[in-house]
Prior knowledge:
Oligomer: heterodimer
Strand content of chain B: under 5%
CATH superfamily of the domain at 2-76 and 155-166 and 186-267 in chain A: P-loop containing nucleotide triphosphate hydrolases
Mean pLDDT of chain A: 83
Structural class of chain A: alpha/beta
Structural class of chain B: mainly alpha
Number of helices of chain A: 11
Order of helices and strands of chain A: EEEHEEHHHHEHEHEEHHHH
Mean pLDDT of chain B: 90
Strand content of chain A: 15-25%
Largest sheet of chain A: 6 strands, mixed
CATH topology of the largest domain in chain B: MetI-like fold
Number of domains of chain B: 2
Distance between the termini of chain A: 35 Å
CATH class of the domain at 2-76 and 155-166 and 186-267 in chain A: Alpha Beta
CATH class of the largest domain in chain B: Mainly Alpha
Helix content of chain B: over 70%
Number of helices of chain B: 11
Radius of gyration of chain B: 24 Å
CATH architecture of the domain at 2-76 and 155-166 and 186-267 in chain A: 3-Layer(aba) Sandwich
Amino acid sequence: MSYLTLDGVSHYYFSKKQYTESLHNISFSVKKNEFVALLGPSGCGKSTLLSMISGMLQPAEGEILINNEKIEISELEIGYMLQQDYLFPWKTIIDNVLIGPQIRKRQTSDLKQKAIALLEEVGLKNVADKYPSELSGGMRQRAALIRTLITEPEILLLDEPFSALDFQTKLKLEVLVSDLLKAYQKTAILVTHDIGEAISMSDRIILMSSNPGAIAKIYDVPVELRDESPFLARKHPKYGRLFDKIWADLDQQKHTVKPMEENAYERS
Amino acid sequence: MNGPKLFAAYQQKLKKEAKIVLTWQLSILVLFFAFWEAASRLYWIDPLLFSSPSRVFSSIWSRLIQGSLLGHIQITLFETILGFLIGTIAGIVIASMLWSFHRFSKIMDPYLVVFNAMPKVALGPILIVALGPGYLSIIAMGFIISVIVTTLVVFAAFNEVDQNYLKVLRSFDATKWQCFKEAVFPASLPAIISTLKVNVGLSWVGVIVGEYLVSKQGLGYLIIYGFQVFDFTLVMSSLVIIAILAAIMYKTVEKIEQLLIRK
């Protein structure tokens, strides 16, 4: 039973003199409560794909279906987390967290209680009235996570949300996100170029190749790893095996691409 | 624990630094007036043309007592503040419209560039013909000189706002107006405040030039009148008053900045 389906999705970028196909014939589906990772080099169109799922961008070709029906994507509650927290520096943490309901004019006092409870869950209750500049990077990203969760999204789109953090903070946050998503039973799509992150967090990994962005390979993450928290999963013997496999496939991809595209990969 | 002691020493150091700066600032001021006075009395400069601080201040004092000066100050201040406010607010409103309608901004681009490059003071005679030789023309002058610069600077600031803030808001289905209100405008506030500071100076230029052209009242009129009757003490007095008022206005804008922007 697939929940979200992408069927033959393509996308083009236009500039004055030429056009580039950035995504070519992408088809995959995501089950309810599944955690899927999109893994690939920079510039393979992962983020573009997320923008299309979120409804901010229309696919040039192909369709995006929810429950096998093409629905108005804006009806769907989508949570979006970006590389950086993008908390508004002129709002306090609690106001930042409540920006979603405020935009949708659904702010209630219950919701504020809920926001405080969620902040408490991630250890931010005592900084609710502080401004983002007074918090560390990890705390800010946690606040951004709560901002995304407060609207109770059906699908969570995570666009390299851990990439700007130091390793220790990143691991802690991976565990937190993984726990919260399991607890609230969310469907999630994580975009990353970090193989370890993809393996330790997700149920399935979609490896992408670039120019144009296309699906190269799909891996099922072993059940043993899925059930572990990201921290422990990294120590599991099967983790290393899958890592090596993906690494080898990525390496091969790297050797088959043209020199210009190799540069694009190096940047990642 | 050395903490409190070191902190006290640090605070002491800050205080001392502030004191040194202030001492220098005052010294330069006093020295400037002293030199001016001495140069005038010793005929290094022609006292008839460049007057002297003692004459300037006694002239200001006597005109204040007569009560004639206050009226002039009031008129000019009123015109300047009004020109400043209208110019700034109109500039921000136009910039917001340019931001909201992308095509409109593309269409308007060459006209804004031409109008910005044009010396606005040259429009003075046209304004007088159109609005009559009264305070309306003068306020229009204060307005016209600041409005286009404000529009361009604020519009540029709107466009420089990180698109990811808008992405966050759009993921909550924010409308364009909500994006503007929640992200674009607050993120551009620092740029808006700095145009306010520039506009303080500009609107003084506009209003004084406007008064040169038409007025029977105001500090600009006093300068021109003093020039015509060869009373350079009056010219210098007006300049000193303008300097003081402009500085006060600038400081007020700075206070507003401190209120609006968290440091």
